[in-house]
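Entry 12.
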Amino acid sequence: MFALSMGMFTANLDSTILATAIPYFANEFHSIDDIGWYGSATFLKFAAFQTTWGKAFKYFHLTWSYLLSLFIFELGSLICAVAPNSATLIVGRAIAGTGGVGLCTGTFAIIGYTVASERQSGFMWNTEGSFIAVDWRERVWTGKKLVFANGVLDIFPDITGYGECWGLGMSARHWGYGQHHGGDARCTDGPAVRYDRHHLYTHGAQERTEALEKTSHDKGIKVDSRPVTRLVKGPGPSDVEVGFEDSTKRIEGFLVHEPKTEINGPFAEQLGLYLTSDGDIKTAKPFYSTSVPGVFAAGDCAVPMKAVVTAMLSGTLVAGGLAGQLQAKLYSGEQKLTQTV
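Predicted 3D structure (tokens):
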């Protein structure tokens, strides 16, 4: 890990130290007009070859690819050291940039391919930024904080026609149908719902059926334990035909069911974030910080109630917590200095 960090440190030092070296270059080669190229030659190569090195580390041997990038970087640095004129120096800077981006990309690639996902965050914290993200083009992005707002994927039960009825005659939130499908008498009165016209389907779960019958009998709600085998969209705007295992059917004005969900992407697992029993990212209120310092989560991936308003609220609170942490770190030195004075 130390060797990888030193490779990235050297590549970044080669870029940042340039500001100090440019006056000496200009004085040595009498080349005021070339000053812009001393820096841009390197950064242009960083931009041009980042995806190329990403593919190289993906399809070729990690060690040899990394050593090749190191060789190119050292070759460019050697050309710069012995450059007799400004043009040669610019060429050397471009070659060094081609190898330097390989060193930076290779550091992340080697960690990603050789270190277990739950330990990667511990190896990457001391690189250029606290967190690293690699996009579909193999480009590497670094940052001090990380916010997950990647949502969840609905996992539909194994019932024929469920997916076709989802969003048309069935929703995870009953108030949505009260607003959009007001033609049905069971949802036009808002809170004044006629419970005696409701059915609870437990899909063969006998223990749950017995528990629900005890708590809902006085409200007139009918509990049906028959396994549901098929759902068919009915003729009305939200009608659904429910088919049972015993081949009988019933048409409902609409259905309410909240399917299981799973977080989109492998990112929570890669960082080793703690999850709730429902599979959501476990957060601490009020700012929705996760079990990994510097990582926040907002929206459906972090809240039990998957709704737009809840997601907006969590995003607003995350923004406050994120800004607070960044500012606290930014001004901590000034606060200490003020207290000392």
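Annotation: The chain has three domains: 2-134, 147-152+273-340, 157-256. Residues 308-340 form the longest helix (33 residues).
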